[in-house]
Automatic annotation (TrEMBL):
It comes from Aureimonas endophytica. GO terms for cellular component: cytoplasm. This is Xylose isomerase. The active site is at H103, D106. The gene is xylA. GO terms for biological process: D-xylose metabolic process. Belongs to the xylose isomerase family. GO terms for molecular function: magnesium ion binding; xylose isomerase activity. SUPFAM superfamilies: Xylose isomerase-like. Mg(2+) 1 binds at E234, E270, D298, D341. It comes from the Bacteria. NCBIfam families: PRK05474.1 (NF003998), xylose_isom_A (TIGR02630).
Amino acid sequence: MAQDNYFGLDASVAFEGEASRNPLAFRFYDKDRTVMGRRMEDQLRFAVCYWHSFTWPGGDPFGGETFLRPWMQPGEALARAKEKADAAFDLFRILDVPFFSFHDADVSPEGATLAESIRNLNEIADIFEKKMESAKVRLLWGTANLFSHRRYMAGAATNPDPEVFAYACGQVKAALDVTHRLNGANYVCWGGREGYETLLNTDMKRELDQLGRFLSMLVDYKHKIGFDGPILIEPKPKEPTKHQYDFDTATVFAFLQKYDLAKDVKLNLEQNHAILAGHSFDHEVKLAYANDLFGSLDINRGDDLLGWDTDQFAMDVKEMTLVFHEMLKHGGFSTGGLNFDAKIRRQSIDPQDLVIAHVASMDACARALLAAERMLEDKALETPLAERYAGWDKPEYKAVLAGEKTFEEVAEHGLGLQPQPRSGRQELLEGIVNRYV
């Protein structure tokens, strides 16, 4: 079967409505439906990722590939990469998504030298550019893989060897150049090996300074070439290292403040990474908004019974409703979107399983978005929240937060008070959420 018809589907997936039982049709994702003043497609900004969809072979630590994708079989590397591109753009067409994303190593083979690798990347970028002339899909973000090759086993920017640092600079420059050339909306940095296995051989301050310098140079270069999108950091606490320096939203915020990067660097957040850090997905999103760091989302999930990053397709409507509720409160995405950093399961070996997984998750996201819209329209959570903090709206307490009262003045005021506890009403609020999902 030709790779431009690898999935055996001529027509794009259509919206059929909630009554449909067709796994290759949308029940809730109606791209032209207006949600909070924007088309649903423009609110969700779905992106298919290259790596899990077209590069992961279906292996696990105890077994090899199960998918047997034609472009993963032996053959001339660049020719296989071109076959992969054909299949990828066919999936983009079938799903009718507005965006895709990639690592450099996903789309093109590594050469014997960095220069050869960059030539390969640009050859595939030529193909992307041509395909994108007639396709709807655009680039949400590009990135460089600075974690798979053995040269990066001790990190990239944080590596004790400055030659690895320099090599990583060359690789990232090339990936950003291609992202800029393809009009990408963002550029992502994931520090998969920027961390440590043991503190016995780690100079943490030195490594953090190296990482800060690396990102500062990257920001300078982005401005030099006129790349308008933000640099996005994707927090993750562990895997593949024992401890990664981009542990969670709060850790990255402190790092960006120290190295004066918060203006140009935002966050790409993922549910599974939040869980590994001991947080909920909506916690990380709310904290990012609270610190003006929200950028984009990887829309996948982990397994609650497993303690590692399983990258499953997002299906939890309630969880996503709370995330989208926060997003809609702040006006939705700017340059970001919902990137499917998700893998079908190892036993889902039929080509159409990849289509069905995206369709089901897109529908779950659409259903969550509609629930979040109804919650906001009804002020279901906003009214109780405003009531809980209503005391701070009194003039005397507004003056405190405005810096118009001294500590002594507020303490003096407190001497005449006898405040009484008030119910947090958690169960009531949980019940309210359940009415919508």
